[in-house]
Amino acid sequence: MPVEFILETQGLTKEFKGFVAVNNVDLKVQRGHIHALIGPNGAGKTTFFNLLTKFLTPTRGTITFNGTDITHEKPAQTALRGIVRSFQISAVFPHMTVLENVRAALQRNLGTSLHFWKSEATLFHLHDRARALLSEVDLSSFADEMTVNLPYGRKRALELATTLALEPELMLLDEPTQGMGHEDVDRVTRLIKKVSAGRTILMVEHNMGVVSSIADRITVLQRGAIIADGPYHDVSSNPLVIEAYMGTADAALQGAH
User: Fold this and answer.
1) Percentage of residues in the chain with pLDDT exceeding 90?
2) Bridge partners of 12?
3) What structural domains and CATH numbers belong to the chain?
4) Cα Rg of the chain (Å, integer)
5) Is residue 69 within a helix (H) or strand (E), and if so which, with residue range?
6) DSSP one-letter code for 146
7) Which stretch of DSSP H or E encloses residue 158?
8) Residues 187-193: what's their mean pLDDT?
9) Is pTM beyond 0.85 here?
């Protein structure tokens, strides 16, 4: 039987020359859940993600994935386990078509991403899978469009497809709706909910409307430490959380977009 919690951190801490960016964080992410990590700017959310993906080494504490201690693994080892991160800034190739972007991600998953001298014909076997992924994120009609021409929200949807191409067991989404208008936010929120079926998602997100509508559980960081953890209703009414946002997000925390 797979362990109930796909990801656990215990006492996870990161200090930079006396500044504690992540402070003794005990986090449990349940398999199959959408788990949101929220908090004011400077709360340590991105540093925490960097620790999970091994871009940073913890000062102390442990990271366990599927019951295995991965604290001191290299980034590539952790990625091979199925922890895949989607970045805040859209990370796609602008001068390739939408289909070619997904195909490139599929090649990477096969370990053939450096075989650029291969003829186009040898890559056709990836097209069916690439088109299926585009369908999953509602981009089928954009397959032959140059990526540079896509609206911003559609680029983020494409990034979601390239992340899915790597067959993640745990998807780390870093501000997936940042910089979007209302319509794009709604579309990408629906896509995240759709692609979460059979997967686990840990997401950093500022938009409380997004968090309230799709997160199964929410962890709130402030100054690197957890101040609240639980379902949206409990967290949004927690006085510490409301104080952390200094009233500026009070309305948002009640579920407003």
Assistant:
1) 72
2) 25
3) 1-82+168-257 (3.40.50.300), 95-167 (no CATH)
4) 19
5) strand 68-69
6) B
7) helix 152-165
8) 95
9) yes
